[in-house]
């Protein structure tokens, strides 16, 4: 599976962005897709995941209530809608695919999100 993330950019505190993760190469519907992020000098952290099949959604505490993950299997795309962004959300965001949620069997290039104060 090849993954490509896009949609990052520079926004002010309180702003919104929608990230997209487009997959190709293998049946998309078979994979759970997760978003991770990594800020300079920090360890990567999981953000959110949507499972294959029944599309169960998982969020880390900092994302709950602000971020929404969805998937469109017809378009082989997973979206991450991010609202009420904070400077601490600044990071490189990338998507991964695996059979279980947060499994990173495949990883795509990231997209930079910068939130100014």
List keywords for this structure.
single chain; 117 residues; mainly beta; seven-stranded mixed sheet; four-stranded antiparallel sheet; 11 strands
Provide structural commentary.
There is one protein chain. With 117 residues, the protein is an all-beta fold. The protein has strands spanning 2-6, 9-12, 17-24, 32-38, 45-50, 57-59, 67-72, 77-82, 91-98, 106-107, 111-116. The strands form two sheets. Strands 2, 4, 5, 6, 9, 10 and 11 form a seven-stranded mixed beta sheet that branches. A hairpin with a 6-residue loop joins β5 (45-50) and β6 (57-59). It is globular.
Amino- and carboxy-terminal Cα gap: 37 Å
Low-pLDDT runs of 5+ residues are: none
Number of strands: 11
Helical amount: under 10%
Q: How would you characterize the largest beta sheet?
A: 7 strands, mixed
SSE string, helix = H, strand = E? EEEEEEEEEEE
Structural class: mainly beta
DSSP strand content: over 45%
What is the averaged pLDDT score? Answer: 95
What's the tally of helices? 0
User: Which word captures the global form?
Assistant: globular
Radius of gyration based on Cα positions: 13 Å
Helices and strands, with pairings:
Blueprint: E1 2-6, E2 9-12, E3 17-24, E4 32-38, E5 45-50, E6 57-59, E7 67-72, E8 77-82, E9 91-98, E10 106-107, E11 111-116
């Amino acid at each position: 599976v090849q993954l490509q993330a896009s949609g990052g950019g520079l926004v002010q505190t309180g702003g919104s962005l929608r990230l997209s993760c487009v997959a190709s190469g293998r049946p998309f519907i078979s994979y759970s897709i997760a978003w991770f992020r990594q800020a300079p000098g920090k360890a990567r952290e999981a953000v959110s995941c949507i499972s294959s099949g029944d599309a169960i959604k998982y969020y880390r505490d900092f994302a709950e209530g602000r971020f929404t993950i969805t998937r469109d299997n017809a378009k082989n795309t997973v979206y991450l809608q991010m609202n009420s962004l904070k400077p601490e959300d600044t990071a490189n965001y990338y998507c991964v695919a695996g059979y279980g949620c947060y499994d990173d069997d495949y990883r795509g290039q990231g997209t930079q999100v910068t939130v100014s104060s």
